[in-house]
Amino acid sequence: MALNKLLALTIAAMAFVSVPAVADNSRVKIQHAVDPKTSIESWVLQDDGVEVELIQISPDQARGFFLARGFNRGDVDYYAASCVFATVVRNQSPMTISYHLADWRYATADSVTRKLKLKDDWLREWQQRGVSKSAQIAFEWSQHPTNQTLEPKDWNQGMTTYQVPHGSQFDLTVKWKKGNKNYVDTIRGIRCAD
């Protein structure tokens, strides 16, 4: 609930603080915004009716969220060491879209390309670490779905994680399919919260 409230407040504030697009052609727009009250940053990619939004989640926010769901401090600190984002995908197009987070990649300043650490990767680790079943279920529901099909006007959200240092930047390449057409776009200069 706290994450949903934070997300709603952040999105509402972003409506008033959007800055000019950092990339813009006839089809693709990427906007960056900073919430004036919280300094939380967000990035929104818009391409042919599809929106991918990333909203920073600070390490303290991640810790608080999972401590409240039954995780112990050691496991929470382990998760919060990752770069965490609330990720929202919206289908504003008239066609069904689908995507697989396993196809998304991020690249760091050293040009190393990595796969996202997905929900199932985390769940395997939580099981090995002895995290309670109820905490694992809460975790599973908080993460962005790994495979998703969205009908027109549909959307979904959840957390995604990136294994980069806090405060560092990376570029995220996202892929999805709409009808028979594959799309690939890159959001550049995403910054991990400190």
UniProtKB/TrEMBL annotation:
From which residue to which does the signal peptide run? 1-23
Q: Which keywords fit this entry according to its UniProt record?
A: Signal
The keyword Signal is assigned to this record: yes
What superkingdom does the record give? Bacteria
Keyword hit for Signal: yes
What this protein is called in its record is: Secreted protein
Lineage runs:
Bacteria, Pseudomonadati, Pseudomonadota, Betaproteobacteria, Nitrosomonadales
